[in-house]
Design goal:
The protein is mainly beta. The protein has three domains: 84 residues, no CATH class; 88 residues, 2-Layer Sandwich (Alpha-Beta Plaits), CATH 3.30.70; 83 residues, Rieske [2Fe-2S] iron-sulphur domain (Rieske Iron-sulfur Protein), CATH 2.102.10. Bound molecules: flavin-adenine dinucleotide and FE2/S2 (inorganic) cluster.
Length: 277
Amino acid sequence: MVTDGGNVHAEHVVVATNMTVKSPVGMARRTQPRMHTAIAFRINDPGVVDGMFIGIDEPTHSIRTGRDAEGPLLVVLGPKFNTGHDGDVARRFVELEAWARRQLPVGEAVWRWCNEDYDTPDRVAYVGTPDREKAPGFHIATGFNAWGISNGSAAGLMIAGLVAGQSSPWENLYDPARPYPEDFHKDGDSQTIVSGFDTIPPGGGGVVVSGDKKIAAWRDGGGALHAVSATCTHKGCTVTWNNADRTWDCPCHGSIFAADGSVLHGPARKPLQRIDV
Ligand SMILES: Cc1cc2nc3c(=O)[nH]c(=O)nc-3n(C[C@H](O)[C@H](O)[C@H](O)COP(=O)(O)OP(=O)(O)OC[C@H]3O[C@@H](n4cnc5c(N)ncnc54)[C@H](O)[C@@H]3O)c2cc1C
Ligand code: FES
């Protein structure tokens, strides 16, 4: 394995980077990246919700308790949406907070974030050795369909067994190279194309198309404009501005870049190129 810090030689390598950043069998079209909005509210009584609950109605919400250094929390998640396919993620947080305040005895909203996970066509994760001929010691675990605490534990047990030379009855079920429907994965285009830099307000961002160039620009609170290439360094799709997290989200395979273009989440491994405007 080649890294920025040098070459690593190993008999077995496990790539469990949410979306695989490398694999001898392509994972991009076998998976669909999607997000939930999540808010953690302060609560007085940690016993107010006894367990974890997911609604059966649409749009779906889920709730569970948590804790930070200040005390107990109620963590509420909204309905899922494909990464980079929504040009107004902030609206989802407004809707989620309003829903939570209608339904639950919540106090101050203290944490907000978008999570990301990968769906698979049959709702089963991809775990194991994708190509035993070409890369016999190369193992992956991805596509947890938002159930990576339980599936990730199963993946850990199974891959540990494979490394120790043991076969597992789960190998066929989780086979990362199993057939998949060609029309499952949905690429997308930027949802935040704007007509010019002048239209971007402080705190906002958008993609300006100028000839064959696509420029991803955002304006900070002081009014200064910051720009990077809008072309994702994974396979070249055009990123969408996430107006809640202030990130550039790729609508194809779920890479997430910070406002300054640095990589926050793969499969991209290189930053968006800085541009002077
Ligand atoms: C609020 C909430 C509640 C949840 N509840 C449940 C539940 O009840 N049950 C359940 O089963 N699941 C649950 N999940 C889902 C579960 O947390 C995820 O599915 C799981 O964490 C995904 O695991 P992962 O190992 O694939 O990815 P991650 O946990 O994202 O781990 C990937 C790791 O790879 C590292 N990485 C990424 N890129 C690179 C790189 N290029 N080089 C080196 N390292 C890299 C990252 O830093 C990270 O540490 C919940 C999620 C949320 C947000
Ligand atoms: S994540 Fe694949 S093109 Fe952006």
